[in-house]
Amino acid sequence: MSTIEKLSIQGVRSFGVNAEDMQSITFSSPITLILGQNGCGKTTIIECLKYALTGEYPPGSSSGKNFVHDPNIFDKNESLAQVKMLVRDRRNVQMSICRSMKVTKVRNGLTFKTIDSTINFLGSDGKPSKNSQESMSSRVINTDMAVSDFMGVSKAIINSVLFCHQEDSSWPLDEPKKLKEKFDAIFGITEYNKALDRIIKLRKTAVEELKVMNANLKLLEHFKKEMDEKTMSLQNAQRKCEEIKEECIKCDEEVKPIDARLKEIRNIEFEIGEYQAEKVKVDTKHQSCVEQIAKLNRQIKTPFEGSLVELEAEIRSFSQRMSEIKYQLTDVEDQLLQNRKTKEDQQKTLAKQDKERYVAQQKLKSEQECKLELSRHIQTLSAQLQINVKPSVVDNPQELIDLLDDIDGNLMAKQCEITELSQSNDQADQARQEKIDELRNELTKSEQSIKTQEKQKADTERDIESLEMNIKQIETSQQQLKVLEKQIADTNEKYEHSTRNFNQEACRKVIASKKENRDKKQAQFKQLDDQLTFLSSIANVKTEIGLKEKELEKKNHEIQRVRSKHGDNLNKFFKESISSNYRRAMQNEYDKLRREIDELNVDANGKNLAKQSHEIKRKNLIEEIARMEKEVQDSEERIYQKCHGMPYDELLLRSKTAIAKLQLEHGALKSAEAMYKKYIQKIEEEPSCPLCHHNMSGDEACDLTTELTDEIQKLPDNISRTEKSLKTEQSKYEQLLQIKPTIDKVKELKEKLPKKKEELRTIEQSLGDIVSEYETLMARLGEPTHNMDLANSMLGDMTLLDEALKESVRVKKDLEQLKLKLPENYDASVSIEDLQKQKAEVSKELEAESKALETSQQAFEKQVEALSRLREFLNGLKDKRINLQEGVQNLPQLKERLDKLTRLVIAIGMEVTELRSKLQPIKQKLGAALSEKARLKEMERVKLEQLQAKYMEYKSIDKDIQRLNEQAQEFAKLDLVNAIKKYDASINATKEEISNLDTQINEKNEELEAIKKKCFDQQALERDLKDNRELKQLQLKESALSEDCKRLAKQLGNLDFRSVTKEKNELIRKRDVATVRRGELLGQQGEINNQVNKLQKEMAEPRYKESMKNYMRAKFEVAVKQCGIEDLGRHRQALDWALIEFHKEKMNNINSLIREYWRMIYRGNDIDYIQIKTDDSATDTSADRRKNYNYCVVQSKNNSVIDMRGRCSAGQRVLGSLIIRMALAETFSSNCGVLALDEPTTNLDRDNIMSLCDALNRIVESRQHQSNFMLIIITHDENFISSLGKITDYHRVYRNSECKSVIQKVRVDGGH
């Protein structure tokens, strides 16, 4: 069995949040005791156990927010909580569970967050297991379910049985609804019912799907037949298409030799055309060459008489001369460029020298100004310091240095004089300040003495006032003492009078008499109560008799209600009235109506299938008619696009005529080129017309030749245009031949369309008849369906009626048995009501006697209290008198002290007056000393500032002299006069060099112009030589072209153009016949291909493509679905039976354990045993009803069973709930040996506590052999612990000084 080994708590409720605050508890087998006062955190341990195992927060914790330690207690922003647990399962494998939480303070309160939940699987030695995943988090798996599986019990058992919170420990005696929820969770009834509902729903859905699948199967069978038909049509079309292809191949074979010979003829024609074109080209080149020769003869000024070789040599020598002239030109240009660059550099040097000379002149001017300023400053400072200076001292450096040294010495003397004066002033001021400090100290001492004397005088005067007040009070208290003496005498007399009037003994006797009367009434009340107790002992039987009578009346009323509710319907279903077995009779009627409805449904389904079949045929016909109409429309559109509304035969004849005309024109153009060339040749030989032989002039012959030549040039374009038109017309003719099958197909479709439409009308009429019959069957289904629904709705009430009849018979038998249980000596005339009335009267009398006794006691107590108050008042007056007497005795001493204090005040006043007279002269002396000090200090300051100002003026002039002297020395180092002379000499030399460069540049420019003129003359001569060379080359070319013209004319005369043209026309006629035949075949092939494509497209549709596969699959699916429906029905019955048997077995076991534990523990005699009563009720009255159990805890006495809730005491409620939990734990937690009892002794008397201890000891002894059995008991009752037998230690829970919960293990003998 699984068990718990260790629990660690941190930051939960009263347990601290720090690491050192973590508390751990190690659980021991077979029993673990936890002891602590109320509020120390014992129940928190149960809550942590439940939270670690299930992840659920305790009730009332605001979804975990109040479960974590409140951060406001220790003024923190957040609190972290953690619960760790170590458990072991029945295989001895360990698992650690860690759950962490956090509560954070926000503006509006607290926010709660679960950080993580982690489980770690360990081996039996506490190390990670090798056969499982070592660690899993709540982010990956459902840790709550994993922990429940590991422990071997469900969450409901853990929450409601094993670790039940004290507040929820009495749930077995809670209201029926909550009790049912608990037991349903424990048994898992809801999950079973959900499984049954799902099975029923699945079976119902499967039945509906089966109907649809059968209809779909018929549709797929229809598609399969259509697919077979289309496959045959496709095969026939493809075979015909192959035949046409073979015919087309034969036509192509016939055309091939014709095309080959036509190609040879075209090559011959092309050869003739090439010869003629080449002759025209050569003639054109010859003419162009003659014209160029004439043009060059006009351009050449000096013709060259030598040969072409000599001319080439002359041109090469000329080129060499020309190269020499160009080289000379380039050399002169480079020299000119170099001279210009040198001139620019000299000009830049001259500008730089001018700039440097100007800067030297400016510095020389600054040097002169610096010397003048230095001389002026020296004269001024020397005059102020009374030093003799020569006028030319600035020009003499040595004298200037000596003079500057004298000035520095005088300035040092001035500075020492200022320092000495400042020191003497400070010493004098310090002496004056010391005198002033002495006067101030004297003045302060005098003022302090005056303040001290005045304070002492004030304190003494306050003492005098206090003494005078006390003396007056004492003098007044003498009169008060006389009055007080009188009050004491009066109070003493009043006290003695009250004591004489109040007889305490008599009052006590009266009170004792009243107590005796009250005791008598109490005895009478007790006697009546005993009689009522006797009657109450049999009152349970009478009550049960009354309850049974009421129950019988209720059952009869319910029977009558049901009969009256369904009276009309019962008369409708049953012709003869019945008195029992209503459910069976109604079930028979229900089954009869069900069979009738099934027969009607079978007929309706047949009609529905026929309707679906006709609808499919109708849909297919509509689609086929639409397809045929669309095909006719598309074919007519295609025919229109080719014929444009004209008759097909007329258009075909016109196209054939046009082809013949274009072929004739094409042949004429092909032979025209040779004919034109032959005419041109004849005209050139003899200027006459080749046709009429009319003689022509030279101009006419030239014009005709030119015109024929132009026609020859146009022939290739005309031939190309004619061939293009011929090909276009032939293509159009072939297209017309191809649409011939389409025209035939349109005629065929127009003949079939009326037949298809007639067939559609017939199917639609048949479909209307089937729909009418189907609707009639559905209308006939209405009444039996209504009756079946009515019978179905009555089945539940009929069941209730049968049960009510059975209960009525049972209640009658129980009533007779209860009446036999009444005692024989029972006096029926004495009723509980009469005794209760007498008891009430005696109770009233007892209450009146008690009130009178209480009134007497209160009056007696008031008298005693009044005497006590009077005695206390008298004692107070006596104390006051003693105090007044003591004050009168101290009066002389107080007056003597008053005289001393008065004399002291007079002496202090004289001393203060003397001190004040000395204070004024000291203040006058101090003021005069301060004024003198300020006057002398101001004079010294002014004198010192004058000396410092003169010294700073001298210092400033000296700094200027030093600065100007340094500048003059810097200028002297530069030697500016000699530098300016050097700059003048270099500038003059640069200017002279620039003048020489200008002369050289002018000379080179003149030389360059002469060379350029010579070069131009040579270029003109070169052009004339080249024109001579070109003339000689053209003369050679003209001779070669003349020879080519003669050769081409001879070759054209050898070719026979007429025989080739005749053969060509015959071949073209044969090819046209074959082409027409092939076009017709291609038209037929196109039509057949359209049919094939159409069939393939239709067969490629999903409904036809996989029709056989879909049909077989659907057939198999129908068979599988039928098997599945049968299996679901059997599975539902098996699951329902298993649930009933499981619940019955477990409840018998639970009730057996409850009765055993009750007899073992309970020490009362009013209840023999308790048990859990279950009633099987149905939430659904139909045939597919669910198992639904109602639970009730009942108690039994003398074989009479009544509901325990509301009839038991608080202790019986606690004990009963505890016993039920123990029985549930014994039954359902065979895999988990842990049971926690939180405050099990609550509301139990001592006897039941002891019996509970004995029972627990026996349970522990019986489970000792089970190593994993563990009983956890949490209590505040130490006596209960001592009664549990051999307990060596326990765990104590308490709050430490910081109010945090602490767990401590304690030995029973007092050790830790």
UniProtKB/TrEMBL annotation:
| Record domain Zinc-hook: where | 645-741
Record-listed Zn(2+) binding positions? C689, C692
Q: Could you confirm whether the keyword Hydrolase appears in this record?
A: yes
Per the record, where are the segments of Basic and acidic residues compositional bias? 452-462
Output the Gene Ontology terms for molecular function: ATP binding; ATP hydrolysis activity; double-stranded telomeric DNA binding; G-quadruplex DNA binding; metal ion binding; single-stranded telomeric DNA binding
Q: Where is this region: Disordered?
A: 441-462
Q: Which cofactor does it need?
A: Zn(2+)
Main localisation, per the record?
nucleus
Pull one GO CC term from this UniProt entry.
condensed nuclear chromosome
GO-annotated biological processes: chromosome organization involved in meiotic cell cycle; double-strand break repair; telomere maintenance via recombination; telomere maintenance via telomerase
One family from Pfam that matches here is Rad50_zn_hook
Cell compartments where the protein resides: Chromosome; Nucleus
> What is catalysed by this protein?
ATP + H2O = ADP + phosphate + H(+)
**InterPro entries recorded:** P-loop_NTPase, Rad50/SbcC_AAA, Rad50_eukaryotes, Zn_hook_RAD50
SUPFAM superfamilies named among the record's database cross-references: P-loop containing nucleoside triphosphate hydrolases, Rad50 coiled-coil Zn hook
UniProt keyword Ribonucleoprotein present = no
Q: Which UniProt keywords apply?
A: ATP-binding, Chromosome, Coiled coil, DNA damage, DNA repair, Hydrolase, Magnesium, Meiosis, Metal-binding, Nucleotide-binding, Nucleus, Zinc
Q: Which family does it belong to?
A: Belongs to the SMC family. RAD50 subfamily.
Q: Which PANTHER family match?
A: DNA REPAIR PROTEIN RAD50 (PTHR18867:SF12), RAD50 (PTHR18867)
Q: What is this protein called?
A: Zinc-hook domain-containing protein
